[in-house]
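Trying the structure run again after the queue cleared.
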Amino acid sequence: MDFGLLHDYVLKVEPEKEKASRVRLIVKQQGKELICRKEGLNRLLDFIYGGDDHLIKGRLQLSKKKTAISIYINGDIVGTIEARAFADGLDKL
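Done. Tokens:
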């Protein structure tokens, strides 16, 4: 599943081949992969539905405020997606 972000950035979420309970979060710009992070599916769902405001430390970061999830690369925001759309996409994986 792909989510369009700002300045031609795209967040792609795909299942990890080795472990069904994990996904790959990939940020691309103009087709070039910039960052890839493997994350547990349950941890992502807990982040969406739970009380945590931040997930993932390092170059790729996710931050949640009410119903929106912001995506950051190296501390700079590259886009925002609706939490509901992100959850629906994870359910389809």
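The radius of gyration is 12 Å. Worth checking whether this holds up in the mutant runs.
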